[in-house]
Structures are given as C-alpha cells and as structure tokens.
Amino acid sequence: MISKKTKYALKALIYLSREYDKGPILIADLAREERIPKKFLELILLALKNAGVLQSKKGKGGGYYLARPPREISMGKVIRILEGPLAPVPCVSETAYARCEECDDEWSCGIRLVMKDVRDAMAQILDNATLADVLERIEKEKQKKDGALFYAI
Amino acid sequence: MISKKTKYALKALIYLSREYDKGPILIADLAREERIPKKFLELILLALKNAGVLQSKKGKGGGYYLARPPREISMGKVIRILEGPLAPVPCVSETAYARCEECDDEWSCGIRLVMKDVRDAMAQILDNATLADVLERIEKEKQKKDGALFYAI
DNA sequence: GTTTTAGCCTATCGATTTAGTAGTTTTTTA
DNA sequence: TAAAAAACTACTAAATCGATAGGCTAAAAC
Prior knowledge:
Two copies of one chain form a homodimer. By secondary structure, chain A is mainly α. Chain A folds into two domains: 4-66, Winged helix-like DNA-binding domain superfamily/Winged helix DNA-binding domain (Arc Repressor Mutant, subunit A, Orthogonal Bundle), CATH 1.10.10; 74-129, no CATH class. Helix content of chain A is 55%, strand content 5%. Chain A is built from six helices and two strands, in the order αααββααα. Chain A has helices at 4-18, 27-34, 38-50, 75-83, 110-126, 131-152, and strands at residues 54-57, 63-66. A two-stranded antiparallel sheet of chain A has the order 1-2. In chain A, β1 and β2 (63-66) form a beta hairpin. In chain A, α1 packs across α6 and α2 packs across α3 (38-50). The longest helix of chain A has 22 residues, at 131-152. Chain A is globular, with a radius of gyration of 19 Å. Chain A binds a DNA duplex through residues 3-5, 26-28, 37, 39-40, 42-43, 45-46, 49, 56-64.
C-alpha cells in the first residue's frame, strides 16, 4: 500500500496539471481544494521541488507549478520520490540496486526471480503513465459515466 | 518493499517445498538452514498455519509441513497473509476492498485507474507463481550457471 | 505416568516510519 | 517597509518492524 503522503503528492500534481500554464498555485489553495493538511502538503511539495518535479515562487503572486509539462512527468517518477524504489526487493531495483543481506546466492534466489517480473510489470505501467495520461483517463471515465447516466434517464 | 518477515516466510516455504513428503521439519532446523532467528520464525510459521498454508505436529518427530502440495500454494497467497492485500490502494483490492477515505469520486479517481492496472499485473504474476514453479525456476537458473561455468573452463 | 520433545501463546522492547503540528526565517513584491 | 508566501527546523503521537523472553500445552517415549 502506498502512503497517504504519496497519494497527497499525486493528487496535488494532478491538480497542478489541470492548472498547468495558469501560473503559480498557492499551497493554501491546493490544500483546501484537495483536502490535504496544509503544513503536511508543504513538506510534500518541497520534496517534489527538490527532486526537480516542481518549481516555486516566493512572495506575492507566488506558489507552486510543474517544472515540466504533464506529458513529461510519470507516476513512476513521483512514487519513487516519495516511496523509494518500486522493486519489492532491493536486488531487482533498476534505479537503486542493493544486495539483500540475507541472500548468499543471488542468481538462484527464487524470490528474486519472481520479484524481478513484478518490478518490471510495475515499472512498465507506472513509468508510462504520465500526468497527462491520467487527466485523459479521468475525462474518459467521466464521459462514460455521463453516457450511462443519459441512458439511465 | 516487502518485509523481512515475508522474505523469511517465502524462504521457509521454498525449503519445505524441497522437503515435501519427507515428513515434518523442525523449526530449529529450518531456522539454522535458512539463517532465520528461531523465535521470529516461530511466529511466522504459526501465522502461515493459521492461514491454512502449513500444518504442524507436536512432540517428538513433530515439526511443520506444507498443508498442500507445492503446486497449489502461490506466492500471492503467502504475501497476502504476511503483508496484506497486493493492491497499492485499498479501493482496487479484489480480496480486501475498502473505500479510500480521502476520495469522494472513486470512479473518476486518476490514482485508482492506474493502480488498478498495477494491482492486476501484480496479481497475474504472483497468483500464478506457485512454490513448485519457483523450485523449477531455481533449478533452471542453476543449470544455466553451471553451463556457463563449463564453457568458461 | 512422568519425562522429554517440540510447537503454542503472550508480553515486551528498541528502532524506525508515518502522519502530522508549531514556530520561525527568508525571499519577493507592492 | 509591510505583506505575502514559501522554506526551514524541530517536535510529537501512534503505528509498524524485527526481534527476544518466558511460560504453557500437547504428544510421544520410556
């Protein structure tokens, strides 16, 4: 399960994607609209900024905005920033490989063999799902729902 | 990342699969062979027993053994026992669905749409990887390694 | 039938992570 | 220089992780 922190981050980024090219958005507005504790959101946005996903402006007219267009930011990237590597075990991580202490023969470790498949499948999905993709999918779902509602009436 | 507890559980089950139909195995032997803290392993095996994956026998000649053949126990099952649902968010879990508190419109939640794909991909892999499969894959890897070694000499 | 064997059960513990909160400082702009 | 707004530092309560300790219970052997 992903943490609340990561969910908040994704919600905030989806919101900022929708408002992309409308200038900086206030933390306070984001917090209110997405119902995220303001001070907590501050820490999250800061982490995303330090990781190069967001940029910010201080003082009046300031706020946060995406460092790149929504098409160029993936869910995989965001999740790695907040949660660490996608891989279920460190020995199959592409972005942060580490040996499993308890494993002496890595190349014939059964857990590793299966978890490699899992990590590849997850990366395939999450690294290809950009914020722009997510916005599109949300729109499609809303249309589907409206369509169903139309026929229901 | 999966916990040490889950890794220990999988290691123990792979060991018990290899010794399947050789009668009950002592916790102490398992702990020594797989280098798992004995008392900790006790709790893990007990959890697996309560979940129906293992059976046990007390007293002399006792120990633990698989409740079903290795072909009928999947990694997905084991991971769910020790870690809870595979799903990254509760609202896409097939085995333990729950609403996300922070989500008002579940059907057009972008996070949910992507995480559904992730959970399906994980379940596809982990529910189809049985302990017997894992043993086979380990053997294949070992043969590959031996083959490479042969040509290297 | 009591002794040994081996799993069962409950409690506790220190370290780390999670989900925040509070208060102050720095930067920008009007 | 006053305001707005992000940045930084520190703290906390609760939960989870990775164990350890010690006694209890059931089964088998003698």
